[in-house]
Specification:
The protein has 219 residues and is of the alpha/beta class. It has six helices and eleven strands. The chain has helices spanning 29-40, 49-55, 101-104, 108-115, 131-140, 152-160; strands at residues 3-10, 15-17, 44-48, 70-74, 94-99, 119-123, 145-150, 166-171, 180-181, 197-204, 210-216. Strands 6-5-4-3-7-1-8-11-10 form a nine-stranded mixed β-sheet, sandwiched between helices. The two termini are 17 Å apart.
Length: 219
Amino acid sequence: MPFVGLKWAQTLDGFIADVRGRSRWITSESSRRMAHVLRGGYDAVLVGAGTVLADDPRLTVRHISARQPVRVVLDGRLLVTGSEKVFNTRNARTILLTQGRFLRRPSSVIRLLMRRGVDILGMEGGAHFSPRDVIKTLGVEGVTSVLVEGGPATAAAFLDTSVWDKAHIFVSATLLGGGTSAAPLAKPRPVAVPLKLHHTAAMPMEHGEMLIEGYRQRP
């Protein structure tokens, strides 16, 4: 199984976006530059379709000299249109994971993505993929490490199923008081038995921000 990292940026009170869904900019330029350093250390970077549609990211490494990771988009309902930036920059391999039925009867979107060189992999079992199956599929594709960048539902799915090895959490010195939670678990933990990071490290960033990293506790 590939090594799995989780990465997100949040406020002190645990939000990644405000009540209107706006997330630019939770953290400063120095933290965003460090996020590119993290990307460059993984074979692949993975996001859900919601992040692609909301933020239109390229998912490339910028600001530093590093190899480009494979870009992976999870889209069980085939919501993307093919016009998004991640599918229109060819300096990195791009994989779309979607339901196998969309490949058996290719739509105009599937045909467009194929023409643009996107590798489309079909998954079975409905629109919501098992994180373990996703990571196994990427392992077959030669990927040895994956950085899961979100959105919150995708991050929560990996946390809920314990399909992760290391977390990279950027924390800004700001409060929102409400908005989109960083990783809303399907089964929230009681305070007595929370998810804990082990072998943690905290790196001070500019403007009072912090990068907190740690590993999942093994059973």
